[in-house]
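Subject: sequence -> structure tokens, single chain

Hey, anyone have a minute? Need the predicted structure for the following. Not urgent.
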Amino acid sequence: MNKKQIVVMVAIVAIMGYLYSLPVKGLIKASSTHDTAKGAPAERPQANITVATVSEPAKTAIGAALSAKINDLEGQLKNATADADRLKLEKELATRWDDVNQPAPAAFYYLELARKENTLTDWLNAGSRFNDAFKLTQDTSVTPVFIANAVEAFQNVLKLKPESLEGKTGLGVAYVNGGATPMQGIALLLDVVKQDPNNESANLNLGLFSMKSGQYEKAVQRFKTIIAHKPQFEPYFYLAESYKQLGQKAEAIAAYQKCKEMMPDPVFGQRIDQYIKELKN
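Reply:
Had a minute. Here:
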């Protein structure tokens, strides 16, 4: 599975989780008028959150057959004594977890590789997977570790390549997710879109953070910027949600329908149909 496919799968899972976390009536409009998302300071990361901790639930999710292959690689890694052999197995495990769309264990392996070899690619992979893992999990005991590791990874990206827009975007997202320094995170994302107005990741996250703070007009503009450059189902979905919160029913329905066309999953489609039906009544 390539990076683009991983991103798409994460988006699908995140949206499905978002859908089922809400009543059919949708989001309750936030009262905040601030431009950035609010959040409590990030909790101190727990030292007992490791690759083993996150691998067990991931194995349950992927099933016995796929887990058996990973268990075999883990056994080889445990018994490996040569650094070159361990490095090779860690790379293979990171790839295997990516192949089954499980960013949390993949992130820990990429982080281990990055700490050993200090390459830009490994730091980027580690940071992006930790941000993806944060996006997907509902387990608050692991999120401080995901955030702290994402921050470490993207800070190292920027040490190696200070002009990296991907590094600035990832670090900005991690800062906002952590809650302790949201303004610093937003500033990084705004700097990215200043340099690259059509930057997909920065605009998407700025749009999501605007939704969280109840500024749906700003969110609409962010998602429309992405769609104008490259139509995709994820920004269409959040555009529809933003329009719904603004009371713009016709626009919300059109965006929902477009999103449904681009994501032909029957379960997803049924949930979207509920939203459209609600708006038409």
